[in-house]
Design brief:
The structure is a single chain. The protein is of the alpha+beta class and about 240 residues long. It folds into 2 domains: about 5-130, 2-Layer Sandwich (Killer Toxin P4, Chain A); about 135-235, Killer Toxin P4, Chain A (2-Layer Sandwich), CATH 3.30.430.20. The chain is built from 5 helices and 10 strands, in the order H-E-H-E-E-H-E-E-E-H-E-E-H-E-E. It has helices at about 5-15, 40-55, 85-105, 150-165, 200-215; strands at about 30-35, 65-70, 75-80, 110-115, 120-125, 135-140, 175-180, 185-190, 220-225, 230-235. Strands 1-4-5-3-2 form a 5-stranded antiparallel beta sheet. A hairpin with a 2-residue loop joins strand 9 (about 220-225) and strand 10 (about 230-235). Helix 4 (about 150-165) packs antiparallel against helix 5 (about 200-215). The longest helix has 19 residues, at about 150-165. The chain is elongated, with a radius of gyration of 18 Å.
């Protein structure tokens, strides 16, 4: 996981409302699963094969899915980049994610890591097409707004609209904006992993949106980031 200093740095950057991603460290990571693998195991070999080939499978729209091996030693993995990220930057981010997970989760059979530009996940369990409700975290701007009740309604209006659009298009991704109070513009994003069905994508995004009031009510910016989808809003434009 991020160190306390890294978390503080990211939160400070949010509080300053910077318009660029200065925090180049991973946003978060989890090592999961009840079982570990050994250095000379078939699982280790299959994981190495998967992580070697996954970056080469990244499509022009920023998604890759693959598996390696058979039976109990089989490993499944996906890489997903934010919808506005170029293929070149996507591959770079995925390769960085692979290196970082090898360091942070050297023996665990399951692991996931998020950067601003990409997510990487692998597991010994076949998770393709299933909503991941376990691997999730929140980030938010430490500053609040003057009228939380009205602002929260605008956030829900924007993100709910984006969820409907994202779950119905080919990229499973959409960014948009909505005029808020005081001539301020609210910017939002919704994205799903492309192994999900349209219905599960919508379900995942709606669930993420429903968690915002409990974690981030009235905050000037926030995101709910999971293993299958993520939503984000800010009072500044944060995508290309």
């Amino acid at each position: 996981m991020l160190s306390s200093k890294s978390v503080l740095l990211c939160l400070l950057l949010f509080s300053l409302s910077l318009h660029v991603a200065i925090c180049t460290n991973p946003l978060y990571h989890y090592c999961f699963g009840p079982k570990n693998f050994t250095a000379n195991s078939p699982y280790r070999t299959n994981l190495n094969n998967l992580l070697k080939t996954l970056p080469t499978k990244v499509s022009s729209t920023g998604f890759a899915r693959g598996s390696s091996g058979q039976g109990q030693s089989r490993v499944y993995g996906i890489a997903l980049c934010r919808g506005d990220v170029s293929k070149t930057n996507c591959v770079t981010c995925v390769n960085d994610a692979i290196k970082k997970l090898r360091q942070q989760c050297p023996k665990q059979k399951g692991a996931i890591i998020w950067y601003d530009n990409c997510m990487l996940k692998y597991s010994d369990a076949d998770f393709f097409g299933k909503i991941d409700n376990k691997n999730k975290f929140y980030m938010y701007n430490v500053k609040g707004v003057d009228n939380p009740t009205s602002f929260n309604k605008k956030v829900k209006e924007l993100l709910s609209s984006l969820a409907s659009i994202a779950s119905a298009n080919q990229k499973w991704y959409v960014a948009g904006k909505l005029e808020s109070e005081g001539s301020k513009t609210l910017y939002g994003l919704g994205q799903c992993s492309r192994d999900l069905s349209n219905a599960n994508c919508k379900k995942c995004l709606d669930s993420a949106i429903s968690e915002l009031p409990s974690c981030c009510s009235g905050k000037r910016g926030a995101r709910v980031v999971g293993g299958s989808c993520n939503v984000r809003y800010e009072l500044y434009s944060f995508v290309n």
